Amino acid sequence: xxxxxxxxxxxxxxxxxxxxxxxxxxxxxxxxxxxxxxxxxxxxxxxxxxxxxxxxxxxxxxxxxxxxxxxxxxxxxxxxxxxxxxxxxxxxxxxxxxxxxxxxxxxxxxxxxxxxxxxxxxxxxxxxxxxxxxxxxxxxxxxxxxxxxxxxxxxxxxxxxxxxxxxxxxxxxxxxxxxxxxxxxxxxxxxxxxxxxxxxxxxxxxxxxxxxxxxxxxxxxxxxxxxxxxxxxxxxxxxxxxxxxxxxxxxxxxxxxxxxxxxxxxxxxxxxxxxxxxxxxxxxxxxxxxxxxxxxxxxxxxxxxxxxxxxxxxxxxxxxxxxxxxxxxxxxxxxxxxxxxxxxxxxxxxxxxxxxxxxxxxxxxxxxxxxxxxxxxxxxx
Amino acid sequence: xxxxxxxxxxxxxxxxxxxxxxxxxxxxxxxxxxxxxxxxxxxxxxxxxxxxxxxxxxxxxxxxxxxxxxxxxxxxxxxxxxxxxxxxxxxxxxxxxxxxxxxxxxxxxxxxxxxxxxxxxxxxxxxxxxxxxxxxxxxxxxxxxxxxxxxxxxxxxxxxxxxxxxxxxxxxxxxxxxxxxxxxxxxxxxxxxxxxxxxxxxxxxxxxxxxxxxxxxxxxxxxxxxxxxxxxxxxxxxxxxxxxxxxxxxxxxxxxxxxxxxxxxxxxxxxxxxxxxxxxxxxxxxxxxxxxxxxxxxxxxxxxxxxxxxxxxxxxxxxxxxxxxxxxxxxxxxxxxxxxxxxxxxxxxxxxxxxxxxxxxxxxxxxxxxxxxxxxxxxxxxxxxxxxxxxxxxxxxxxxxxxxxxxxxxxxxxxxxxxxxxxxxxxxxxxxxxxxxxxxxxxxxxxxxxxxxxxxxxxxxxxxxxxxxxxxxxxxxxxxxxxxxxxxxxxxxxxxxxxxxxxxxxxxxxxxxxxxxxxxxxxxxxxxxxxxxxxxxxxxxxxxxxxxxxxxxxxxxxxxxxxxxxxxxxxxxxxxxxxxxxxxxxxxxxxxxxxxxxxxxxxxxxxxxxxxxxxxxxxxxxxxxxxxxxxxxxxxxxxxxxxxxxxx
Lengths: 381, 648
Description:
Distance between the termini of chain B: 122 Å
Low-confidence stretches of chain B: 642-648
Shape of chain B: elongated
Number of strands of chain B: 23
Largest interface: A-B, 54 and 46 residues
Oligomer: heterodimer
Mean pLDDT of chain A: 82
Radius of gyration of chain B: 37 Å
Distance between the termini of chain A: 21 Å
Structural class of chain A: mainly alpha
Strand content of chain B: 15-25%
Number of strands of chain A: 3
């Protein structure tokens, strides 16, 4: 890999790099995380030490990582992409073998100081891998079937492992995040037509396979789909989460019940109130104003990323930024849809807000990569 | 690998185009999310807010304090006592069995209670307090409190429960409360939500039962916030409800105590004391009695069996429920009916040979040799049966019944006690309806001496003597005031009986007690100002066959208790200015003059003095015996000397 490709003399060096960081993005990430601290403090009933404090520590740690990653030249990361992808894949296999079983799914490896979810890592390394792949590939070959097959394998291998855990939410995120990179890289529209058709076929296959020996999803996943389609069928059972979540959200009104006044989440009507359902607490306590503000913050983050990608002439940096933005987008879009009753409950956290160590760290590292691409972009003619 | 700059430029353009498409898609989805928020949080906000409130706000009932019951002098008969409970919360206790074992080393715990509590602990959520034991003493509570550190999850608690400080005395009149049962609910047709509270106490008998709605009060409510598991988080609002009405009864607790103690000297007896002027019931006694507090706590089956198997029927309120043949105490009614019909004059004499012949049957006088020529006064004074056989034959049962009804026979008085009987005042029609048989003259003769079909309760007999004494149709009254508002005195209108006839009858009753030949002379009151007028009665509960009569009637003392005669006495005092009327029935007590009249006199004297009467009120020959009786009578200390209360 040539160092010269990047027009090195024009790339900022040393401490000067700090001035080239996308500071607005850093500010936005901090703002979203701060919303998270506030909500974690609230759902713990005014207890800082329960969730908010560990989350803050992880945020601080993540921010340090973000800066370190951002300072490292982007070509280093491009060169590391293959290794990172293989490493994540290895960890996914490892989790299958030794992972601690929790909540009915094997998802993490206990590192002692934190529980690492390789699937979280994989979301980013897959994006890096695909970006590097398309950076390496001749632009003319992008839509050739053989060269389309390679990234498909790269996506489906970890997806298969994640599905086995089973973690439907992450599997979908991997497919869609990887798909976004492929789309951005310029894979022909024809393929996307085929994908849409196949998607429809898969959905019907999923439905028709129910109850047969080759059933594609687990029973609880089917039940989640059932309750998503009609939550009222089981208001105290599986539909409970959705119904309660909608009640919390809807009862927020314009400005909400006020900080720490959310009755639904405070009174434990809400499940997983500090993780997957934290958005309902925000919506209940701060109402439409609060919920829409968070959505706006997210939208700004996406816009900054897209802007950075569009203005970046480096193919790797651009594609990776788009992929990370897409993954980030999928996180909050799926989570919000889920708590608002627009999507089945699939267990996707609200990025940077939900309580959770690996997700927070991985996301900030990912934005570190985005910053690195931003700082080390090719400049000049 | 080196890329040409053209390559890079083309690729960058393509990436930019696709990036914009991606960005557009994402913005579109975000817009949809924003719209969804708007729809839920603004358009449907009210609907969801309502659902949220339903989710979290729970109504809990607050049991109101039950109304108190006092006697006429303001002495508490039924009160709400602190009920010390010991409560356990499973989640605080940790190892429940260990904690209970430790508790058992400190205080005694009933195994049955414990079993029930364990079952409840299994059933309820871990944060719900479960009562381990209640009705504990203050010492037990103190012991638990002192050892609190060793007893996690265990707390002493206090609630209200009914207490009857006078114990047995008002067991029948006031009755008792107990936890509401499914049977009560099915029977009551009462949708008061309070009844749904587990172990809520409702009146089961007596005044407690009859005035249940007044005593119970209105439920209060508290709004509490609960979480999804039902745990109470905080109280949002509270409405205390209305406590039950306080009742003041017409009864005098001191007199009642005396009556109960005096009656208890016999095996099974009842007495009613009534104010002649306004019908106030001053004492309604029935012996033996029981401790109503046992029922409040939930009586043990052994204790309950003891009560139900007792042949003296302690659970029955004999004063109001018991129907007894009134015996000779009925003779006043026959006299008045005959006088009013003009079938006899007070001075006409009738010959008593010791029997009265009707066809080929002989109706015997209690005195085998007969009384000879007797007029009205002599006949009543000596209780000559033949005189009344003759009168009854002249007047006929229907006229006797009509007169008796004016005095309350056959009528169920409206007093709030359980199972008040209306007794039986037979007529020709009644017998036809009941037995489908014609009335016989012999039936009238039996009725004339208060036997046969006639049945009356001690309450009815007391009303009769009060009406005889006052000449007005007074009604018995048990509730003096409700929440300080005096209840109406009912009745008091004219009886519609010739006052001259009444005067003759009263005079004859005076003779019963104060003339040497009177059947109750032995139970006279020595103090002329307080002199007693009355009538004894001895009613058979068996037929005396001709053969037995020929052998000589077996004396009561030689008969088994169940077959002995009932002893009765009705009367009033003072004769000159009637104040109190009394009736006494001693079940299977033998003769009215020996078993019932002394009791009635003692009760009247206590009522007149408002305390144990001075010995001077008694005939000299009886004073020693009376003194002994007064000394040994198990009165509550407060009532021995009247307790310093103002007299009624």
